[in-house]
Amino acid sequence: MSYHCEELDPTDRDRWNELVETAPQGTPFHLFESLEVFARDSGTALHPLLVKKGQEPIGLFPVFDRRVGPVRVAFSPPPDLKIEYMGPVLVERQQLKPRRREKRLARLVETSLDWVDDEIDPRFVHARTGARFDDPRPFVWRDWQVVPRHTYVIDLTRDLDDLFMAFSSDARSNVRRAEEYDVVVREGDRDDIEPIIDIVRRRHAEQDVAFPLRASTVTALYDTLPEGVVRPYVCELDGSFVGGQLSLELDDDHIVWTGTSERDIPVDPNDLMDWHAIQEAAGRGVERYDFLGANNERITGYKAKFAPDLERYYRLERSTLPTRAAASMYQLLS
Length: 334
Description:
Elements: E1 3-7, H1 13-21, H2 32-42, E2 45-53, E3 56-68, E4 71-76, E5 89-90, H3 98-119, E6 124-128, H4 137-140, E7 145-155, H5 160-166, H6 169-180, E8 184-187, H7 193-206, H8 215-224, E9 230-237, E10 240-250, E11 253-261, H9 270-283, E12 288-290, H10 297-304, E13 309-319, H11 323-333
Parallel strand pairs: 4-6, 11-12
Antiparallel strand pairs: 1-2, 2-3, 3-4, 3-5, 6-13, 7-12, 7-13, 8-9, 9-10, 10-11
């Protein structure tokens, strides 16, 4: 039975989302409403690719494209929106045997990339997988550059008391000190998104680092995704906003997208903010608390103190441009 790739019609978004939720590598970034918001805010064309074996769906690969000067480029995820995870996902309605899974993944990658070559013909392609994507070999076999990246993930199936005691001593101390100051952490709503983005942008500006994510993008996700996928957390001291965190949640995964707190206050509330979100997520039956990145040496010390596991995902690239032009293209798109 042959494999083929088709571009899913937007009217079939419910079908797409159902397949995302049956795919272990599926993330909130893969949901169809997310893809539409990202395409609009990145000025790209969305191609929601569905690969089938006969009539059976075996995988999804959302691809975006646009022109950069004379060059057509493709990517998954699109640039400039602080999206770390996307790429292909393998549909597994039931656990597949290793040999069958490997064959299906190889066909998913091969069939979708052949579609990209035939329909888009990009000179440069950039993709990043999700944290549960564990086999980049189909890309290696097609002569793509494969670079490992890392994230920290906390196992929320552990006893929470044991988990708290596994935190570093300074994390536990910061949580207790914030509680002594009566710092309040609560789940917010749509109106809290802009203050959170503003404080994160200010903290990045202090370090001369650009922060491309806009409040309008997150607000659009909040408005269009199912309730509970976008979760803003707000931190208050003496009734005033002093920090916040934006997280995304789907099935077993709670992903910390971004967040920070004010510097000029007498206590650091960040550890309490994460501890609160960890407890809330575990109470909903979520199994994984993903810090979304362990690649920046400057911030790994903060994330590592919560007793997480280090997990790998992948940056994937292919280019027909000269090496220097490809490197410049990546810098432009990252």
